[in-house]
Amino acid sequence: MEFQLPPYSLKMMLPELFLFGWALVVIAFDLVSGRKKESAVGYLTLAGILIAGGLLAFTGYGRGFGNMFFNDPMARFFKIIFLGAAFMAVGSSFGVLKERVRNHRGEYLGLILFSTVGMMFLASSQELLSLYIGLELTTIPLFVLAAFYKDNKLSVEAGIKYFVVGAFSSALLLYGISFLYGMAGTTDIIQMKINLAITHLTFKSIGMTLVIAVVTMLAGIGFKLGLPPFHQWVPDVYEGSPTPVAAFLSIGSKAAGLVAFAKIFVNGLSAFFGPEMLPNDWGQLVAIMAILAMVLGNTVAIWQTNIKRMLGYSSIAQAGYIMIGMVAMNVYGLSSVAYYMFAYMFANMGAFAIVTIFEDKTESTQISSYRGLSKSEPALSLILSIFLLSLAGIPPLAGFMAKYYVFAAAVEKASSPNGVTWLYWLVGVGLLTSVFSLYYYVNVIKQMYFSREDSPYKIPVSAPALAVIVICLIGVILFGIWPEPILQFAKDIPASFGFLAR
């Protein structure tokens, strides 16, 4: 039997191929220049990300390599988020490049680009094994980046923890995928959905095998999202990692986990959502994880004295809010999740950018170090306050609209004729814990504005970091007041999951 390659189109894969090659160029440039041009290698990396974004506009929709690579509305939307997060992480890193990673700038920036390529391949995957490979290409560079400060014990500890827990979660995910393959006889997600539905109708129940597959895959993807009980790594890794890497983790890794969850569960296992499918119902299990994330993330964040750990627990809580839209399983659900990630990117990357430049100047990430900052840096304090209020969901900022849309998607599902009534309880927990979150976000603002102490710090801001802050500020305000352009873009995402269009 003659082996034949599936139909392929390099045009569809051009942004990914270009960015992979550009990462090699960045590493080579840093080496050839004698590692003496920190600004040049940084700007070179930013240029590559912008070019990849431009190429993305010309790829269109279609297959790149059979079902292993397929550009659809969801893939394009999340690729914009991945590239945006990478651009902002690199733009925030110029201070780090100058002082902390002098001898390995090319490797630092190249690893960010390699991880971004993995995220982009994952977004276009319609097949379980290529999806898994994309997820690993996303995660493995992040293991190295988390431990990039080799002389810092917290950074080394963060890298080891992330690696050990990440390896274990990957094994669980692959274990669950092997069960799905055994039941469906294929790794193609669409064909798997059809085969599993036929098997369920024929034998009435797939039984314990599917339960094991669902639980192990939820454990694997739950790690990427930082959902309890797989969240323990988040605060430690955020605290020990270089701050721009922690920012990139909070957006890129989370968005990649959401895409993987959507493709496997919302698309491939959609038939097994709902009370009629008990005990194979994954919806209630995910809802419990979302509740734990919102309650634990928001309550434990109150006690944090380190701003990076606080943002880490905040990230756990945000994952819980996002999963409300995911389990809604209707036309509005995926659109609201996509908008939420877009809005969250601006607020979180902006907050981390300011934390980064503050740390570069003061070598401190303690919340108490921000006392009186409004007196020495009024503009920076005001902008950080806006980002924190957006994360808390205060109108008219983008974070408020993001929470509104995921809650509205769940309420719409619960009130439909065949509604899932426990979604009301899920929304109720989300509303209540959103009030809790105000405490720790406003605590930082309180330190900046209401402390009797005068801050001794004047914070210099590099041009790339300033550009990141301005872009994030515009995004948080503009898309909070005028969300329609992003919602119009996101409304095509349910077309990637045809069953949602009913």
What does this structure look like?
This protein is mainly α. The chain has a domain at 284-502. The chain contains 20 helices and two strands. The protein has helices at 14-32, 38-59, 73-91, 94-99, 105-123, 128-146, 153-184, 189-203, 208-225, 233-240, 243-268, 283-301, 307-328, 331-362, 373-376, 378-392, 398-414, 422-450, 463-481, 484-490, and strands spanning 62-63, 70-71. Strands 1-2 form a two-stranded antiparallel sheet. The longest helix has 32 residues, at 153-184. The chain is globular and about 70 Å long.
Name the descriptors.
502 residues, 20 helices, two-stranded antiparallel sheet, mainly alpha
Q: What does the overall shape look like?
A: globular
List low-confidence stretches: none
**Which percent range describes the beta-strand content?**
under 5%
The rounded distance between the terminal residues' Cα atoms is 42 Å
Integer-rounded radius of gyration = 22 Å
Biggest sheet details: 2 strands, antiparallel
Number of helices, counting only DSSP H or I runs of 4 residues or more: 20
Widest beta sheet: strand line-up: 1-2
Q: Write down the secondary-structure element order.
A: HHEEHHHHHHHHHHHHHHHHHH
Helical fraction: over 70%
Mean pLDDT: 86
